[in-house]
Amino acid sequence: MIEFRFAYPHVFLLLLPAALFLFQQWRGRWQSAPVVMRYSDTRLLSGLPVGLRVQLRRLPDVLRLLVWLLLVAALARPQAGNAREVLRGAGIDMAFALDISASMGTQDFAPFSRLDAAKMMLDNFITQREFDRIGLIVFAEEAFYQAPPTLDYAILRRLLAEVQLAEAIGNSGKTAIGVGIAAAANMLRQSQATSKAVILLTDGTNNTGSVDPLSAAQAASAFDIRIYTIGMGNPAAGEIDEVMLQSVAAVSNGRYFNALQLPDLEAIFAEIDRLERSEVERQLNVRWQEQAYLWLIVALILLLLERFLRLTLFQTIP
User: Fold this and answer.
1) Digit-coded pLDDT (tens) for 6-54
2) Is 280 helix (H, G, I), strand (E, B) or coil?
3) Same domain, 173 and 212
4) Does 100 fall in a domain?
């Protein structure tokens, strides 16, 4: 990134004489000039054509003014530099584990289905991150890797937008929460990040799969992976195994949240965003290079041109 600055901006106070000169020239237009030559009747000259030399008679004055401006600017030390941003610290590695079982198509997060509401909140969450690598896994009876942990948020959001219910991709509509947790933990298992987290969104109970959710959570905890579990739906209706989701979060030092409506989901992601913040410090280094010589070269050229014009084409009498 190219930066530009004047090291001594206070030098521009020297432009005040130039402003006074302009004011004097402007005021002089309304005052009578001293008589140089007398004519018996100046009306004899009124019909004469005005040549280009007369029209440009102020050009030497304009050039002299520009020279003054350039000299003052050069004295203010114009500098250009390449800015380099150094990041100190480390981001967080995350994995989204998104339930795509048949029940996630329920339209009770008005005006969205549970899946669409979850996708929208995940998308908003991604746009608020800067230095965190985020991966995506979807699961129903089986788990599918959609994106490995990445900083390319544009591609991640595009893949998230393409997520469909399991039945639309020919998969069973059952829910294997343990498989989803295991897949997300396996994605982060070899991560070197100091902080790792899984965000699990589901609306059901673990009714299939060979991996027990609590066992998968214990394995994730062994790799210092926190799990935030989000139950979408009403626990009182028996749709969500809330005790299991609470246990999964507790074992991994995470937290459990319940979302009944879209505002609940928004508040949950805001809370997770607050809890999982990157400890990254930005430091901007700029290497400045002097640019005054360019301004001085232009000023010299204009000064020579001004002197040439004033002594030749625009020479005045006396």
Assistant:
1) 999 999 998 887 788 777 767 765 455 555 566 566 666 666 677 777 7
2) strand
3) yes
4) yes
In a domain, 44, yes or no: no
Q: Of the candidates 186, 275, 179, which has an alpha carbon nearest to the alpha carbon of residue 222?
A: 186
Tokens 């380099």 belong to 84
Structural tokens at position 113? 């289905």
- DSSP letters for 217-232: HHHHHHTTEEEEEEEE
Residue 39 lies in a domain: no
**Strand, coil or helix: what is 63?**
helix
Average predicted confidence (pLDDT) for the chain: 86
Residue 199 and residue 159 share a domain: yes
Task: Read off the tokens for 257.
Answer: 């949240």
Rounded Cα–Cα distance for residues 181 and 215 (Å):
10
Statement: the pTM of the whole predicted model exceeds 0.85:
no
Domain range enclosing 310: 1-23+54-89+281-318
Residue spans of beta strands (DSSP E) within the chain = 2-6, 78-90, 92-99, 133-139, 143-150, 195-202, 225-232, 256-259, 279-290
What DSSP state is assigned to residue 32? P
Q: Are both 80 and 136 inside the same structural domain?
A: no
pLDDT tens digits, residue range 219-236?
999 999 999 999 998 887
Asked whether residue 237 carries a pLDDT value surpassing 80, the answer given is: no
- Residue 65 exposure: Cα atoms within 13 Å on the Cβ side: 14
User: Residue 56 corresponds to which amino acid?
Assistant: L
Distance CA 152, CA 166 (A): 25
Provide CB contacts within 8 A for 267, sequence distance 6+: none
Strands, E assignment, 163-278: 195-202, 225-232, 256-259
81 and 199 within one domain? no
Please check whether residue 28 lies inside any domain of the structure.
no
